[in-house]
Design goal:
Layout: H1 6-32, H2 38-46, H3 65-78, H4 80-99, H5 102-113, E1 118-121, E2 137-141, E3 144-155, E4 164-170, E5 181-187, E6 193-198, E7 209-220, E8 224-225, H6 231-267, E9 269-270, E10 273-274, H7 279-307, H8 313-338, H9 349-357, H10 366-377
Helix pairs in contact: 1-3, 3-4, 3-6, 4-5, 4-6, 6-7, 6-8, 6-9, 7-8, 8-9, 8-10
Bound molecules: acetoacetyl-coenzyme A (CAA).
Length: 378
């Protein structure tokens, strides 16, 4: 079922070569300096990766969901920060592609393909797992809406990063998740939009994560993505795809950590032989490899369902759950195999261990994924 096409293999190789040659070399500095990897994003734009799934008529390369996952895996193997920046940018473009009006597509997709960065703004201080509890309001006025509220933990939102923001807001507070929310596209240049605190994070430190403040932020009616009242569905359908993206990131981190562990186990000698000759470590490696492969299969199944426009909610949640847990399992054992050296910043495993942790939290915690899976199964 998952024999890759020649085109998918070619793009995977292109992404792998670029990630291993350029992205991996920049990853430690990006992490240590909390530095947005602008060079990586510029190179990825140049190579056509920022518009990977955007149809050619809107300036993209028109690739499929499986290719998207493969590219995110390759990037994440080298630098999880770069992978999440690209992934959330894909989430933005995907929402515009699948639910935006023709005018929104014509205006924003070519810019997204040219590297103008997109973001998705659902989470609020009191609306994390309970996304339906958000309070940002959009009040109808002549010719448009006025938005007021505050979003938090927004990826691709930094002092200088982020150009376009999809904001989910209440248009009918009584109805909440059942028709009470609407999605709006807000531009960075809107005078009613400002960036609040930028977070100092444990991992994925190259990706900028900030508060987004909307104060009397006026947007025209044609900034609505989908229909009035469809905002929660826009968010949930978008998140089905977003979860496949984060699951791909998690698989990439696991693949990277596994490769580092195998390399180290072959080089490091104790008791007169490479530590990898010990069966205990071989069993670690076998478990790590098996779980990584299984996570990858779930991700590709979810991506395939989404590509075929079949309902992927359950499998996307399974992929996100399993891949996130696997990334943490694999990075933990990979660090263990490195012993004391793994705890030092001299080896990339220390960064991978920290980067992996968020994959059990963002785009819905592991516990939220279990809620989604159970609701689908029962
Ligand atoms: N597709 C289409 N529609 C969906 C849907 C889906 N996957 N999931 C729910 N809906 C619809 C329901 O059918 C329902 O519509 P009707 O009223 O017409 O029937 C409506 O949405 C409300 O659904 P629920 O009653 O199931 O909503 P809920 O309040 O119980 O919440 C939830 C469900 C799954 C827990 C949801 O709140 C959720 O996903 N929470 C986690 C939020 C999350 O993932 N945040 C991530 C933020 S983005 C991020 O992290 C990006 C980043 O930085 C990397």
């Amino acid at each position: 079922m998952f024999a890759l096409t020649d085109e998918q293999k070619d793009i995977q190789k292109l992404a792998r070569d670029f990630a291993q040659e350029k992205v991996a070399a920049r990853a430690a500095e990006v992490d240590e300096q909390h530095k947005y990897p602008a060079e990586n994003i510029a190179d990825l734009t140049e190579m056509g990766f920022m518009g990977l799934c955007i149809p050619e008529e809107y300036g993209g390369t028109g690739m499929d969901e499986i290719t998207k996952s493969l590219v995110i895996m390759e990037l994440a193997q080298a630098c999880a920060s770069t992978a999440v920046i690209v992934d959330v940018h894909y989430l933005f473009s995907d929402i515009i592609m699948t639910m935006g009006s023709e005018a929104l597509k014509a205006k924003y997709l070519p810019q997204a393909a040219e590297g103008k960065l997109g973001a998705f703004c659902l989470t609020e201080p009191n609306a994390g797992s309970d996304a339906g509890g958000l309070r940002t309001k959009a009040e109808k006025v002549e010719g448009g809406y006025i938005l007021n509220g505050q979003k938090c933990f927004i990826t691709n939102c930094g002092p200088d990063e982020g150009d376009f923001f999809i904001v989910i807001a209440l248009t009918d507070p009584e109805k909440k998740t059942h028709g009470g929310m609407t999605a709006f596209l807000v531009e960075r240049t809107n005078p009613g939009l400002s960036i609040g605190k930028t977070e100092n994070k444990m991992g994925i430190r190259g990706s900028q994560t900030s508060e987004l403040i909307l104060q009397d932020c006026i947007v025209p009616e044609d900034a609505i993505v989908g229909k009035v009242g469809d905002g929660f569905k826009v968010a949930m359908v978008g998140l089905d795809g977003g979860r496949i993206g984060i699951a791909s990131q998690a698989v990439g981190i696991a693949q990277g950590a596994l490769a580092e562990a195998v390399k180290y186990a072959g080089q490091r000698e104790q008791f007169g032989k490479p530590i990898g000759r010990n069966q205990g470590l071989q069993w670690y490696i076998a478990d790590m490899a098996t779980r990584t492969e299984a996570a990858k299969m779930l991700v590709l199944e979810a991506a395939d369902l989404r590509e075929r426009k079949e309902n992927c909610t359950k499998v996307a949640a399974m992929a996100k759950l399993y891949a996130g847990e696997t990334a943490c399992f694999v990075t933990d054992l990979a660090l263990q195999i490195h012993g004391g050296y793994g705890y030092m910043k001299d080896y990339p495993i220390e960064r991978m261990y920290r980067d992996a942790r968020i994959t059990r939290i963002y785009e819905g915690t592991s516990e939220v994924q279990k809620m989604v899976i159970a609701r689908s199964v029962m």
